[in-house]
Amino acid sequence: MFMLLRYVGDLACRNRFLKALDRRHDADFALDEAVNATWKLKAMNRMLIQGFVISLSLALGCVLPSLNPFAERFVRGDTFVVTSTTYLAFGQCASERVSPEKAIFYGYDKSIGAGDDPYAAPYGGVSRYVSPSGSDHGTGSYLFPWQHIQYAMTHANAGDTIYLRGGVYDSIIDINGNVSASALYPLEVRSYPGEWAIIDGTNTSGGNLFRIFNASWVIFRNFEVRNSGKNRVSNGFYVENVTDCEWHNIYMHDNNGAGFSSKELYRCKFYNCTAKNNVDTQTAGDSADGFSITSGKKNEFYRCVAIGNSDDGYDNWAASSHYFEDCVAANNGKGKGGDGNGFKLGKADPAPYQGLRGGKHTLVCCIALGNRFRGYSENGTTNGSVLTGCIAYASGQNWELPNAPHKVTHCISFGGTGDMIGPATTVVESKGQGFGGTVHTSDFESVDLADMNNQSLGHRFFFPTAIMF
Predict the structure, then answer these.
(1) pLDDT tens for each residue of 335-364
(2) What is the CATH number of the domain that holds 363?
(3) Is this structure's pTM higher than 0.85?
């Protein structure tokens, strides 16, 4: 009876925690904003959040056996591979096999933002409107929308929100330093709530479909970029010398190049973006990553998905100090000339990147599965990365970390063809193939990619059926 009452009490405590910390807006958890608001204070913020959890638990009358650095992940409702010694704020959730009240959703979802106010301008400017049936001779108002996205972006003011009415926009967008935005007054480009805008390159002459040069403080939200020109390598998004921009809930697919490609990208953030089936025909697949960050620093990716691209999922070639959380790389390497890595962690030698080796990334709770060549690859970089709670499954060689001083904690490897873990890599409580021990598909609720966002399964994609360590 005592154990039953304790269990019921723990459940009630957990529910009070989740209700007290209920905060989700457009699939961007407020804790993401709190933890990641300032890059340099990331570790301090985690400590403050844990302190808040302790204080809140005492106020609610809950007993905390101990806290783990990843306790806030279950408070947020995300999934984490839990060890036998991990006690979270509301008990041993893995052993109790309790489904999180709010489970993670990977990649884009057309329903996100459908209930938003279609007239709001939350960044201090005014609302502008664009429609495939509009006219650039109009005023950009709700009744007289503009026709072209490029025209709207170059005529809007800092703080404005540009609403794209649903439908297909079939012209290339070329932005080169001619947008008005600032840290206090960013410019937002998004689909009209309840509608879905599609930027389609089928009828264009080829080239990158959405090009952005020399821009900062622009927010892109809730739309699709597809079918870039087929007569040459053409990316969905191509950006260069861009800082402090954000991409939310963007679907980039079936382009004749990368879904997203960039050079000199700094401090940008990506939330719930999907890059799928991007395959170039000119280089036998070698130029179509899901996300290609050729150079830059301190960009962040949350709940993004790179699937079925002809080259890599996430190519961080000469880039460094990126942060990935709950990102998925699956079935990449479809082209004969494609590399086929899930997460490429660095290396760059050719001009103009001599001496840059990339690396020094942080990956938390990411999943690499079914990639043709490798799941996680250091790719020759000498700069180590930190990987925590990451899973590699059936990706050729799941882990290729032969030389750089990486740190791998609570990670999993199974279903591959042999890992390469070098002596410079520190391995902490990790399991399977190159780490030692065995892991099976039966250890997880589902490893089927079709279940990635399966609501009937409770969003328990790669969720352990029991304690893993």
Answers:
(1) 788 999 999 998 866 656 655 678 899 999
(2) 2.160.20.10
(3) no
